Amino acid sequence: MGRDGCAMPTFVIHELNKLARKVTVSDKTIRVGRDPHCQVVVNGAAVSREHAIFQLDASSSNWFVTNQSQTNPLVVDGGLVPESTWVKEGTEILIGADHLVVFSLTEQSAKTYFAAGRASFLKNRCPQCQWSGMVSALRQDPPCPRCGATGLVGFDTPQHKVVDLQGLDVSTRAMDLDQVRASLKQLHTAKKSHVERVDGWEGGAGRQDLSEATPLVIGRNTTMQLRGFVFGTVDITWNGRRYVVNNHLIFGGLRVNGEPTKSTPVKHGDILEIGSNRLKIVTE
Prior knowledge:
Blueprint: E1 10-15, E2 21-24, E3 29-33, E4 40-41, E5 52-57, E6 62-67, E7 74-76, E8 79-81, E9 84-87, E10 92-95, E11 99-104, H1 107-114, E12 120-125, E13 132-136, E14 153-154, E15 159-163, E16 170-174, H2 177-191, E17 193-197, E18 207-209, E19 216-219, E20 231-238, E21 243-251, E22 254-256, E23 259-260, E24 263-266, E25 271-274, E26 277-283
Parallel strand pairs: 3-4
Antiparallel strand pairs: 1-2, 1-11, 3-5, 5-6, 6-9, 7-8, 7-10, 10-11, 12-13, 12-14, 12-15, 15-16, 17-18, 17-26, 19-20, 20-21, 21-24, 22-23, 22-25, 25-26
């Protein structure tokens, strides 16, 4: 924990053809740029001395980023940001042209974006306006942040960085098209999935996001509460390729698409029946 008991945000920095690195900062105002006095130092021809400032909003406890560069506005989650915008867990910020930074609320959750097989970024250019910069491989056929045109052209072969959670075993390999597609599908599932209640009951949360880093536990006393004669819990965890639902119920059954189960992978559209509770897996 940082100052005042606040969690310390971590920045995972991806640079083309280099290994990812991470920086954890305890301050509530964090400067990013070429200046060595910045808390997060990023070097590059298109990076300003002070390129961006991340700040914690005291009233909402949410973070936002403000662009400081007059020549190279920020690109946040694929969109051009000339001034300020909110950031959250997993937000991707392009700094200059060759550095893509993933914002994480804690050092622990940052492992998601630093772990093996979960980071793939490409250098692209726009044939219409000649904009160039790194783009997350998670974004399929993304529009140009400057002019909005589609059909961005890659500069070279995608490079896939492999780093284990401790950063001890490191290698680099080129990914073929099928591997890129498979990785894209896994990344999309991991980052864009949630569970929603479909039985009409209004008690507890009606929706909860799924996370690679933290299992979602569902029970009588959790955020997404179970009703009726159900005792124990069900959890949904990420196994590196897909989400898996696990039955830890003492009383009451778990069915997935009508079939009783103790543990099974789940995908978009699957219906979880936990006693009289009905939940649905959704990937946006």
